[in-house]
């Protein structure tokens, strides 16, 4: 139910960030200019999209928003050819950079969680070719290459860059998919991130976290939860109140006594939060991440 995975990078910029995933699998989503207005009002300046939508790239030009774009899984076979990779970067990236602040290219999406061995074998060569194409076009030092993958497939990853979220609605058998749990989970996540908290093992290392996701997307396949990860409805109203604006405002305040204002419909007392399923699931994920980071990688012997 929980989306939680890493961006495994060929290069890693070490940027500290709070970002959000901007999916577009819906027939009623607002236009990119309205999305940019919303992100600006929330003070979110880092966004991942799942393609290289030219309308989004053009709209976000000359804004302060940094973008991670995505190469769709079905494109990987073509990018096995270095010339095709060069043409892809020249067509989809170079015309928009640097006006559009593209900082990363995610090659594929969750490839190792499936069973397509051909797709898996194409991934690393495609990443290498895209990285080489960026270098040839003078963009290699500005744009990193990565691939999102589930935490479950990794022996060791450092530094981590996590994307995570919780659905506000689900099918009858999707226990815990409620607006209350989604609000508590994401609120605790935001508080940790804005307080610069790392893992228990590395408390001073801030994770690069992207919230999943910005909008509920009505055309996504799968169970009901897949269409209800958004913080917002397509009409711009909140799916639930995570207190994002208040949390971001309090993080920039110099007053140590600054309070976080949340609506009564979406908040519980601190003691109730610590008893919630969402809190304990979040604690479990943090502990699991620490275990993964401390495990030694496997070494194959001749």
UniProtKB/TrEMBL annotation:
Superkingdom classification of source: Eukaryota
A GO term for molecular function: glucan endo-1,3-beta-D-glucosidase activity
SUPFAM superfamilies assigned to the protein according to its UniProt record, in alphabetical order: (Trans)glycosidases
Gene Ontology biological-process annotations: carbohydrate metabolic process
Signal peptide: 1-17
Enzyme kind, highest EC tier: hydrolase
InterPro entries assigned to the protein according to its UniProt record, in alphabetical order: GH, Glyco_hydro_17, Glyco_hydro_17_plant
Catalytic activity: Hydrolysis of (1->3)-beta-D-glucosidic linkages in (1->3)-beta-D-glucans
Keyword annotations of the record: Glycosidase, Hydrolase, Signal
EC number: 3.2.1.39
Keyword Transmembrane helix appears in the UniProt entry: no
Annotated coiled-coil segments of the chain: none
Gene3D superfamilies, per the entry: Glycosidases (3.20.20.80)
Similarity section: Belongs to the glycosyl hydrolase 17 family.
This protein's name: glucan endo-1,3-beta-D-glucosidase
Organism in which the protein naturally occurs: Cucumis melo (Muskmelon)
